[in-house]
């Protein structure tokens, strides 16, 4: 894998070659990653894997025509061929009035922020094996756990460099450390499966392996002997580990391409109150050690902390340059690369003012959902229907496990009915506290 300096230099060479070959504008992005993973099962080593990969992509413009091409071979001769092919592709492409690099006057001109994303330590495979054994051992030690799908530990490094023909050049890197376990409880047809994991930029921030494993085991055992939930309309409380999926649907509805295609359930919601005024949702690309932190976006624009939802109100769309031009707006610093389109970084919902127990205290009968199944969500209408696993809530307390249930509603109605507890913690790239949504339709056996 190239160093950051080498990667940025290679991207610069590719852009320079594209301009010399006749491109009116171009940018090049390098992405590299390397990781080591150790997996165990039933106390025995199952797999040790070392992977390393890198790719460089060129995007160029000939008038209003554009093309993109990528390669994993960093040989200069290969990159020269890449330019020739991309020029030929662009000349045959249809014209796009919205194509082009980001506005030059909006490019990041300062030195990229230091977001403390690189842990200098790199655990040896023996240390990863020790952590993998520890997490699985802790999970299997929970009474009621009868089998294991394994435990594992990994560490890795990823890096990115971007160069444009109109004056931007930058690069950054980040490390990651992860631990996970997945186990089974019970026997026969009554077996239940659950898991736990944690990831962090720095090893010192990673949760203890024994705690992760114990949580995986306890979750699997708690799901044993599920009862019937019946069918009704009732409050649903979402555990923080899956409540973030609701915010993911919000994000999908406010990205530029969904708006330009007029295919979003939030199409006419700009500036409107989608949530209760107690709800604020933040995107923060500059969070130190954040799992998705970055000092600039995929087009070289500066990034900043931003409220996507401010006291319940939708503040704007997430735009790259192409979707911004189509809408007659300015790009927002949310551009991605690699075909992913615009998107978010570190997202969280600010905590509410009550504890999870207080959030549930007045629920006579409801559901506490810990896992969701399937993808029955319509991004155009907002209709929501997903399989769910969790626990009954009776008289304000979490009771017996339930499974084979479906929860349904409409996302806009769910957003309006949402209440947040005060138990926010930053464990993932997208974090929410415990969430309550009243008035959902439940179908169960």
Describe the structure.
Helix content is 23%, strand content 36%. With 445 residues, the chain is an alpha+beta fold. The chain has two domains: 4-221, PmbA/TldD fold (2-Layer Sandwich); 225-245 and 351-444, no CATH class. The strands form three sheets. A six-stranded antiparallel beta sheet has the order 3-2-1-4-5-6. It is globular, with a radius of gyration of 24 Å.
How would you sum up this structure in a few lines?
By secondary structure, this protein is of the alpha+beta class. It has helices spanning 4-20, 76-92, 125-140, 209-222, 240-254, 256-260, 321-327, 356-360, 411-416; strands spanning 25-41, 44-62, 65-71, 145-164, 169-185, 192-200, 232-238, 281-283, 306-310, 313-314, 347-349, 365-373, 383-394, 397-410, 418-420, 430-431, 435-444.
List key phrases describing it.
445 residues, alpha+beta, PmbA/TldD fold, 2 domains, 5-stranded mixed β-barrel, 9 helices, 17 strands, 36% strand, TldD/PmbA_N, Metalloprtase-TldD/E_N, Metalloprtase-TldD/E_cen_dom, Modulator protein, metallopeptidase activity
Give a topology summary.
Blueprint: H1 4-20, E1 25-41, E2 44-62, E3 65-71, H2 76-92, H3 125-140, E4 145-164, E5 169-185, E6 192-200, H4 209-222, E7 232-238, H5 240-254, H6 256-260, E8 281-283, E9 306-310, E10 313-314, H7 321-327, E11 347-349, H8 356-360, E12 365-373, E13 383-394, E14 397-410, H9 411-416, E15 418-420, E16 430-431, E17 435-444
Parallel strand pairs: 7-12, 11-16
Antiparallel strand pairs: 1-2, 1-4, 2-3, 4-5, 5-6, 7-17, 8-9, 8-11, 9-10, 12-13, 13-14, 14-17, 15-17
Helix pairs in contact: 1-2, 3-4
